[in-house]
Prior knowledge:
This protein has 256 residues and is of the alpha/beta class.
Amino acid sequence: MFFLLSKLFYFLLTPIVWFIGVCFYVLFLKKQKRRKRVLIITIIVAYVMSNSFVVNEFVRAWEIQTVHVDSLTKQYDYGIVLGGFNTYDSQFDRVNFNKASDRLWQALLLYNTGKIKKILISGGEGRIVQEGYRESIITRDFLVKIGVPKSDIVIEEKSRNTYENALYTKQILESQNDSDSLSCLLISSAIHMRRAHACFSKVGLSCDTFSADRIAGPTKFIFDYCFIPSMDALENWRVLFREIAGYLAYAINGYV
Length: 256
């Protein structure tokens, strides 16, 4: 039930859904004065939310900042890569990667530079409508095709959300090793890392963090960046709202 409700909640947090809802609300308003007031407020909110400078500062405050690869002074037993970065095209037998796949590319860099010994991919089928594939499995197969030894890849294929990522990953590590003596590096998106690390800490799996695909950049005072509306800004608000709401929901359920 929590899984289904969380998917619905995330949908309702999308800014474009709010604006469509306001349009329907205005459509049925009978009082001209109130309709005008709602439209003015909506325009102001839309302008502020489409401002790249504003959302950048909020996102930067939430993201867990990454570290330079050279600052990792030890070799980790596992680099734990959280899913949510690809889909499978059955027609062409092809793995399609999205922006969050930077998690995987950073893990490959860490593996090839000797910072992590093995790559653990955590991710099952986190969609409401099942599509018949497990993300960790298709990712493992892809890595093997590009030359990563299968013996250096561990998969967790049951999880549907971040808490389950942590729970099932800990179970796998406990079944294979003494998890208390392992050194693990958690690899996920910077915007997602706060919730992810809290979940892993909650289940008792200690990890250092390595954030990927940062959304926020340095503060910039450039005219078009500060004043011209951007669709990317609206998308960044959606991602930020999703993470904050997700963290709060997880806290209520005792997941963090």
